């Protein structure tokens, strides 16, 4: 995976310290209702298109950029689906990171899906009943995109009140 230069700069000073980083994950649909997926070069697994916003870059801008850079597809962002903190990951070189993902529903508007950089081994459109092997988090994000509901986030307990997500 291509590591953004600003993260390389931080790593030069912070070593393998756990970094809390923003991420964008896109559920991209075409006019036929198919979802855009890539098979990642770093682990060989199928995934939704994703990336890290550059400093100062808005999440929607990062999403549009990442989709085009990785797949050659131009897309527009339609909805924020969820905001979710993932479990920490440790990379083979020992670097540790934890991502807070902003998951976005997007619609393709132009371009042909193709491997467009070194981050993907394969790229393609998949009908919902013909998806390649995907993990439960990716499948859940696709299901969320199909429901057209308000943005999902993990509820928080309010100190001094009973139960998570309590609202007076």
Automatic annotation (TrEMBL):
InterPro entries: NUDIX_hydrolase-like_dom_sf, NUDIX_hydrolase_CS, NUDIX_hydrolase_dom. Keywords: Hydrolase. It holds the Pfam family NUDIX. Residues 19-150 form the Nudix hydrolase domain. The keyword Hydrolase applies. Its cofactor is Mg(2+). It comes from the Bacteria. One of its GO terms (molecular function) is hydrolase activity. This is ADP-ribose pyrophosphatase YjhB, NUDIX family. It comes from Actinacidiphila rubida.
């Amino acid at each position: 995976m291509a590591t953004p230069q600003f993260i390389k700069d931080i790593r030069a000073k912070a070593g393998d310290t756990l970094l809390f980083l923003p991420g964008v994950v896109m559920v991209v649909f075409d006019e036929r209702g198919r979802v855009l997926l890539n098979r990642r070069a770093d682990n060989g697994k199928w995934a939704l298109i994703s990336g890290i916003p550059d400093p100062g870059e808005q999440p929607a801008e990062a999403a549009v950029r990442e989709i085009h850079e990785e797949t050659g597809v131009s897309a527009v962002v339609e909805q924020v689906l969820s905001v979710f903190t993932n479990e920490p990951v440790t990379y083979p070189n020992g670097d540790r990171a934890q991502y807070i993902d902003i998951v976005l529903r997007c619609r393709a508007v132009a371009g042909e899906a193709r491997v467009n950089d070194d981050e993907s081994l394969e790229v393609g459109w998949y009908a919902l009943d013909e998806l390649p092997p995907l993990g439960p988090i990716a499948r859940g994000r696709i299901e969320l995109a199909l429901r057209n509901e308000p943005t999902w986030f993990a509820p928080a307990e309010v100190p001094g009140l009973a139960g998570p997500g309590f609202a007076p």
